[in-house]
Amino acid sequence: MNGRGYRVAIVGATGIVGQTQLGVLEERDFPVAELLPLASGRSAGQTVRFRGREVAVREATPEAFAGVDFVFFAATGELSKTLAPEAVRRGAVVIDKSNTWRMDARVPLVVPEINPEAVDRHEGILSCPNCTTIGFVMALEPIRRLAGVRNVTVTTLQAVSGAGKDGAEELGRQAAAAVRGEEAPAPKTFPRPIYDNVLPLCEKFRDDGYSTEEIKLLDETRKILADPSINVAMTCVRVPVPVGHSCTALIETERPVTPAEAQAALAAFPGVRVVDDPSANVFPTPLDVAGRDEVLVGRVRRDLTSDRLWLWAVVDNLRKGAATNAVQIAETMIARDVVKPRQPAFV
Length: 347
Fold this sequence. Notes:
By secondary structure, the protein is of the alpha/beta class. The protein has eight helices and 14 strands. The two termini are about 20 Å apart.
């Protein structure tokens, strides 16, 4: 760091999350003294725009991290696995968005509104949860603090941009073909056509019938909340929406709470906004949340057959579900004066 700020690198700067990361850093006026956009060799030489100027993209190599303070990884898990330790060895702190490090016991999994103290324990690498998990736990945590949580049944409806630029472009190609009356191009990113369709699959199926995305929702929730006793039953579905992950959750609390109590707890929680007047057709949708950092929650109601609560939540998967959460982690580290790890690992 110099007197004006931090040297910041973004790995995957030309991708959909990397581009969002650049915008969030600029919007939040993060103290960037120098920006180093990095990407794979095939993207090196391109430029990205930051604070009104074009910045050349360099190839992400171990040597590129020399003298860097923060590295935001918005790239493939394989690239993170290879290069994140190299960045730490050169004195940088890594904030990673991939699945590579989330369940590593040495790596904090952080949603700053929920577990900011987790950054104090970092050893050079910190991890962002899955974009679906972030929206889910942001809606769940106010209820948990109010009345405890025993069990949750959740179904997610996930936008195609959760699969990156390729997912968003695939929906666009299929939609354009439909408008022209042409046969849709063969799917490449998703196993079946996504336009005019929904797929009860995000990522890959395991031998037990669950998708890897569903397992993330269970494991990551327990780690973020530091509570392995919470049971999460989950189904993850891909839907033909460009941006904005939605979920519907049925929550069993340790003591009964009314919808009004739950709404008040949600409204008081940082980063959550209640949008809930069904009689006037007021409820959150992906279109409402796109471009915003709050998690929007509505349709809070008591289950008709029990004391459980239903709610509906939406999150911009590119912003709070990815880029914004990563920047908030860095801001939290600066505020808590723990940018440099006390016990660096991965070296």
